[in-house]
Model the fold of this input.
Amino acid sequence: MKLSENTQDLNSGSLYPLRKFHRFARNTHEAFPGYDTENEHQKMQFLKNMTFLLVAAGITTACTRSAKQLPIYGEKEIVGTDTIYHTIPDFRFLDQDSNWVSNETFEGKVYVADFFFTSCPTICPVMAKNLLTVASHFENNPSVKILSHTIDPRHDSIPALRKYAEKLGANSSQWHFVWGTMDSVHHIAEKGYFATAMEDAEAPGGFMHSGAFILIDGQRRVRGVYDGTIADEVEEMITDMEQLLSSR
Done:
């Protein structure tokens, strides 16, 4: 079945417009001209993540952005009178300053997560530029952080991450560039953030990943997903971050 860009969003709200999924798919294909669309593993991995996120957004809440309440993405479970939402799993990574960062580092914070690698020749530079805009907007707010995961742990050593961060002018107390094993990063990407991050010998740089910025609230819940290569969506994310901060 072909999804039209004019299809109404699930739950009659603006949880995550289908046109964004079309744009993610289109941007991923354009960013990776060597991507083999006939490769069944690649195709199924990408579609699984995108489909799950679409369904997850639809089944979570019927609240709309116009109602001043952001969606909560992921499966939910009703236990008695309580609703248990999907949350980011426990993690522990090393950042560019050789400090361990974990869920505790982001406890009670609003943060943006993404996936990149320092030698990325396609979308990563644009994403980094847009994250600098986010960092600048919230530079004096200790309640906001950014978490960038390298998907190339073999080459992106701690010194390489530090050099990359310094070249960007990133504040290490706000923006953490983290290193972990490929398995641990892939797990947190797929199971936590509903993101694509995988090795692909045919993709430029040897890796395939989405350009998503994932917005997380102070309770580890996914509250928004945005195309990190599009300035308008980054501005939308900043507005949503302000909303989360004001509603705490």
